[in-house]
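Our preliminary data section would be incomplete without showing what the modeling component actually yields. Below, a chain of 169 amino acids is followed by its predicted structure, encoded as tokens that our downstream tools consume directly.
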Amino acid sequence: MNTEKKQTSKNDYQKALSSFGKAMKYFHKDDFDKAKESLKDFVKSHSEEKELLDRAKLYLEIIKQRGTKDSIPLKSFEDYYQYGIFRLNQGRYEEAVDLFQKANKKESNQGKVYYAMANAFCLMGERDKCLANLRKAVKLDKFYAILAQNEADFSEFMEDEEFSSIFIE
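Predicted structure:
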């Protein structure tokens, strides 16, 4: 019975450690919303793990403080576009696409926005959305055709007939 209790305790600790590790992955990727949710879930589910619980609470406080300090007021087309590029470069593609879409609402038909969205969708592995946005960018400004053909992020599509057809239109 005593060894069974130790085994259960060890399994619970491993689950807690795994849960805490997941939250930390989000935290280190600067995905504070997901980190916050994961840490809150951790605190609710693993209150018996005192050491990890204290760390989780500490990280929740850090996220709370960062949330107030990193708040950036986005108002103009250029604000949304530039912040979208920043998020794209951080590898936060979905957030970047959201920012590009907001920029597009401020000032529609900007080739650079469609090109950036194409890049983000490509990196997310969403071929059709990538090519649709790239087509719009090239239609608005032929400069993006040259850029796309030399962009490493689009390399997986270089042999794709639909990708190549964008530059012929």
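The chain has two domains: 2-69, 77-166. The mean pLDDT is 85. Preliminary results of this kind motivate Aim 1 of the renewal.
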